[in-house]
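Protein 1 of 2
SEQ + STRUCT:
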Amino acid sequence: MKTCSIQTQLLSEIQACLQLALPLAGAQLAQAATAFVDTLMMGMLGSAILGAGGLGASIFQSVILVSSGIVAALSPIVASAYGAQQPGRIRKAVQQGVWLALLLALPIVGLLVWADQWLPWLGQSPATIQLAMPYLRSIAWGVVPVLVFAVLRNFVAALSDPRPVILIVVVGTLFNIVANYVLMFGKLGLPALGLAGIGWASALSLWGMLAAIIGYIASQPRYRFYQVFRGWWRFEPAMFQELLRLGLPIGVLSAVETGMFLLTMLLMGTLGTIALAAHQVVLQTAAITFMVPLGISLATTIRVGQQLGQQNRSGARLAGLVGIGIATLFMSLMGMLFWLLPERIIGLYLDLDRPDNAAVITLAQQLLQVAAVFQVVDGIQVCATGALRGLKDTQIPMLIGIIAYWGIGLTSGYWLGIAWAWGGVGLWWGLAIGLAVAAVVLTWRFCTMPLQQLKIGLPDTAIETSAGTDD
């Protein structure tokens, strides 16, 4: 009977995780498709525009990735409060999450609008900067909506309602593609804006997505109960401080991981254009498959947080292990595809019959074999991180990430790829080693963390008193 009960709990948790993870993974894939399509359409304007636009898009995506990581602290807070049936705490968390998003947006907008003042410090040519600035100044209008949308997306997902998120993101992506074409080339009687048109299209789609999720929350009786738009301008220092305490380490970890890939790309560039081209092919492919375990990670954070809020510590542990297991299974399948079908994957990017592509194809095949291992450990580490976030454990994972990604991953990649002359393959083994160390240590931490010592419910007396009076 006990075995049957364990199996029932396991199957129930797998089902609950997949119900959350599939829509969230779909939303992540749709967002990745937006960046991919934007890059393709930039190429329609010429190689110089593609280079400048790619630079601008990389800058925007990097700062949004880090800042979205900071506001992602909302997810475990709301999930645990939902599990503990604390609607007043949920309302305060969402409202302070909006405050945090707006305060983060201000410096980011300035960073983009005045990028021509600091890009020369990074060795960018005046011609490239001049081409990139119209894009950066137009897409800067999308910073506020993308961060506030991230807050509200985490809110509805943490309440186990992720389906509207994927619907809104997919519709927003389709609108972005159409708007790109219209504004780039001046269709429907509008002026041709070129690269700036892609930035304006993205900004418009982001504002539309924000309006859609606000409309959804305002129209649903379930969400009216939480009254997140009532008195949204109030500043609650205790809750804001908790968001920062959890969110800043997440943002730092995102920056560290992004920095590992950026520096690896720069090292790859020292090996020549063939190595850089092969690297881009494999990294783009890995980035797409990574969206699925990222969605599973977001779902794992929510499930662990909800179970912890219900004071179900064994359920929280099971939720984390199920999420890690599903991510491992998916990425193992992707790794097998990388290993068995390298030519078909490379053929999506390059003409396999062109003789001048032969060297890039050969190296890309070798990198895909390393990436087959890379896939598995990358899926494990991102889901283990998500499980720990559900326990509101973000500071130690940040330190683990710094050591694993920079101290071990970049260092081993440099020695294997540059010092020992393994080339691009050595650099990719460095990435795999760094992610493998993170995967093992983060999973070990989640499995051995004494959950009975964790605080359940409200961590701050002031918040508890205030929430009680509201409800």
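Protein 2 of 2
SEQ + STRUCT:
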Amino acid sequence: MTFRVWNPIFCALTAALAALAQAQPTQQQADYIVAVVNSDPITESEVRSEVVRLRQEYAQQPQSLPAPDELRKMVLERLIGERAQLQVARETGIRVDDANIDQAEQAVARQNQIDVPELRRRLAKDGIALSRFREQLRDQFLLSRLREREVEGRLRITDQDIDRALAEEQAKASDPMALEVNLAQILISVPEKASQDVRAARTELAKKTLERVRSGTSFEAVAVEVSAADTSNGGQLGLRRGDRYPPLFLEATQRLPVGGISDIVRSDAGFHILKVVERKAPTPPSRAVVQTRARHILLRPSAQVNAKDTTARLAELKKKIESGAATFEAMAKENSQDGSAAQGGDLGWAAPGMFVPEFEEIMGRLSEGKISEPFASRYGLHILQVLERKRVELTQAEVREQVRAQLRDSRYEEAFTNWARDIRGRAFVEMREPPL
């Protein structure tokens, strides 16, 4: 059985549950302690179980699987780190109520469209003790809360940080290497082994050519007449970033206005005369979001009506709406167990991040006017219809909050790695050899 779940405070639960589901095949093999973290043992069966899970995960991704010894070492080191972090969480007084575990268990059941008794039956069938299952949920809650407190709490993004990021973004927009430029050239070629007389004649031709184009003669016409380079488009080289031009071309033209003509540029190929045809600033990062207006019908499974029957009920409502026998608005008012029922399920305009991830994932995939199949979220089971979408420019305050979030995301990985390394370094770890 493969469990699917989303939880509002942690992302690691799916991986933990998958590891549990893979535990049964290893339980019949010999088990022994492979490491002790302070006084807490890690067993061979735990390592094997996680290795199995990672092999399945890699099989679904384009990345290559590490060598067996490397994979096992990686898994053991991660388990040691998590065990040390769990000890810190307990020692510093972080607690998880049984009510939180109950809610997580219900979320797992809902997401798999079954009820809690059926979930427990399947766990037993897979050889997973309920106590172990709930303990794994508790551990993930503890890790999440510890990391939220210790890592996220250290990420302080100041107004000065935001100002600096916006200024850097502005500077990049004016960087000559980032600007897109279209140059046209006239090339007066000079053979590599040309005599002194030939070089003098070509130098004189370059000077007269420059005088002609600066006096008003068509650059394109002169290029066709004398240039040794491609003149099919008037000698234009095409719009490209500055760093894709030879540095001497960029240096000769970066202070010229559009339409400006450069001095003579000498290269190994000969003499170049350049004209700035077009200059275009890079497209700035989007400061707009797509808002979505959607409506839904929410039904919550209960002891009287299980998840399977609830899903069937939503499927009936969907069929009824799509056949024209009823409107979505009417069905939402009559059936939905959400606060939006009075508005016919209408959730209003919503920006990204306003709804839980599992809801937004379905909403993002739906075309306007389409109704989703029944799906589960942490709140229950839904059908969803996207009414319309629109692109909205962010206010200055919203832009700053967007930058703040981007800075937090960019700094989190480094902060977490440093913190986890520190926790690992302070733990006493004894590695054990397998028994003979």
